Amino acid sequence: MPPTLQHPTRLVPLAFLLAIALGTGLLMLPAARTGEGAAPFLTALFTATSAVCVTGLIVQDTPAYWSGLGQGIILALFQVGGLGIMSGATLLGLLVTRRLRLSTRLVAQAETRSLGLGDVVGVLWLVLRVTVSVELVTAVVLALRLRYAYGEPWTEAAWNGLFLAVSAFSNAGFSTYPDSLASFARDLFVLGPVMVAVILGGIGFPVLHDMRQNALRAARWSLHTKITLLGTGLLLPGGMAVVLAYEWSNPATLGPLGPAGKLLGAAFHSVMTRSGGFNAHDVGQMRPETLAVSYVLMMIGAGSAGTAGGIKVTTFLVLGLVVWAEIRGEPDVTSFGRRISRDVQRQALTVALLAVGFVGTATLVLLSVSDLALDDALFEVVSAFATVGLSTGVTADLPPAGQALLVALMFLGRVGTITVATGLALRSRRTPYRYPEERPIVG
């Protein structure tokens, strides 16, 4: 492969494109769908992109349209997307050669967003161990619940449990049930394991790696770990409180439930907006205020190097710290006794503004090619770009141009922020000169 193609910011998109192309071809096999003939190209492309980019948006009902083979292909695609194509390739090379070349570590770092080259091997081993263990435990818990509480046959319960477990940890949002998880809206023993898997998958492997190494020494956690945990601890209960406030009496969502059911439903929606993608209540029936807060939570996403999307909680908090330092007139941006470099500040600002630009432009385009209202179009665009997978129920009714736009957004949302952040980090350099300073008027 030419050296220019071995750069992480080029290899990552190419690997995802290859996986999407392969998945599209497999889903177009006649045996992959339940009806006669092969799936149309756009349907297969949309589903494969949604799976590889661990989004969860669908244009056809998964259990009704896709056969067992098709569902197995979809599961494999979002498992590959969740693990990270580059992470999987690096793990394979590690297993074979027992060592990693520097160039291979750079590629792995582009996908895992680990904190340093020396951490890559440990993070990748943790990716494999955590993925297998969390998915297996979640699958067993769900299978037992589906078997004994809902009477599903063992084979069906095992398959549904495995599919949901992998989908949850991958933050993919695909379900083997037509209503996602609405049938289990009151069941803590189904929604609970799914929420735990989504949070663990989305928090980020470097954070899990750091917490494992310093389990009893929180003071030694990296600034990245502390910021990620702080943001997660603020946003999850904050989102839950907002959903409770606006949906408490909504007869189409939480209204008919008791206090415990309302708390469970609000917590579940808050977790799923962080990129989980499942829904236990009809998102299209939620109040506009709830949808507006959901836009924000979806755009923020969860931790870096996890299976979630969005601009990442660290990016959001770094920008918040920049604003706070500016308000207080402090020369440095600090957190937990550490100074955040100006390079990181610029990278966070670039990632956030590019994301806003993509979402704004795509919303305008979607409004131009469809008859959607602004709130539905914006929700769909944010969900696709942040690889969340929640929908107000309009995805399948979009015209081909609208669905193609969402395909592009899912791809950009999954690999775009990774490559932008990595490209900025790798290109960071010091120039031997500085231009004269001048202050334009701001504000």
3D architecture notes:
With 443 residues, the protein is mainly alpha-helical. It has one domain (3-426). 65% of the residues lie in helices and 1% in strands. It has 17 helices and 2 strands. It has a two-stranded antiparallel ribbon.
Distance between the termini: 49 Å
Helicity range of the residues? 55-70%
Count of alpha and pi helical runs: 17
* Strand count: 2
The total tally of domains equals: 1
Strands of the biggest beta sheet: in what spatial order? 1-2
- Topology pattern, helix = H, strand = E: HHHHHHHHHHHHHHEEHHH
Class from helix and strand fractions:
mainly alpha
Low-confidence stretches: none
Task: Give the helices and strands, then pairings.
Layout: H1 8-27, H2 41-52, H3 62-65, H4 68-83, H5 85-97, H6 102-112, H7 120-150, H8 154-169, H9 188-203, H10 205-213, H11 223-247, H12 259-276, H13 288-300, H14 313-328, E1 334-335, E2 338-339, H15 342-369, H16 374-385, H17 400-427
Antiparallel strand pairs: 1-2
Quick synopsis:
The protein is mainly α and 443 residues long. It contains 17 helices and two strands.
